[in-house]
Design goal:
This protein is an alpha+beta fold. It has 2 domains: 32 residues, no CATH class; 67 residues, 2-Layer Sandwich (Alpha-Beta Plaits), CATH 3.30.70. 28% of the residues lie in helices and 16% in strands. The protein has a 3-stranded antiparallel beta sheet. The longest helix has 13 residues. 16% of the residues are buried. The structure holds zinc ion. Zinc ion binds next to loops.
Length: 111
């Protein structure tokens, strides 16, 4: 049985062209493209804040621009120093938003 490769309809043998799609029929349908599992997007380190307050401020700014970010504070440092307010925080964002996020934070990073 011929099939239309476009709409995947099945036709009588005498039919050569799909009347709906105007496409030549094929003997066998190609396998359906597998739904690609959405890969977890990698996180990119775009900036390092000198402390938690700054990190949170930057996170808020990014949030206002619709960018979700992840703050990574060095747990080792936190264990070593009780003065956690001095702890540096790394700002991580999704790879696809890294460029935009870096642009938004650029004026703050220059300070
Ligand atoms: Zn068709």
């Amino acid at each position: 049985m011929p099939y239309c490769p476009k709409c995947r309809d099945e036709f009588q043998d005498r039919v050569k062209v799909c009347p709906d799609c105007n496409v030549a029929l094929v003997e066998k349908l190609p396998p359906l493209p597998k739904k690609r599992k959405k890969k977890d997007e990698p996180l990119v380190h775009i900036a390092t804040a000198p402390n938690e307050a700054v990190a949170n401020m930057w996170a808020d700014i990014l949030k206002e621009h619709g960018i979700r970010c992840l703050l990574k504070g060095g747990e080792l440092r936190a264990a070593m120093y009780s003065l956690t307010y001095n702890q540096q925080y790394e700002i991580h964002v999704l790879d696809s938003q890294a460029k935009k996020a870096a642009q938004i934070l650029a004026p703050f990073l220059e300070q």
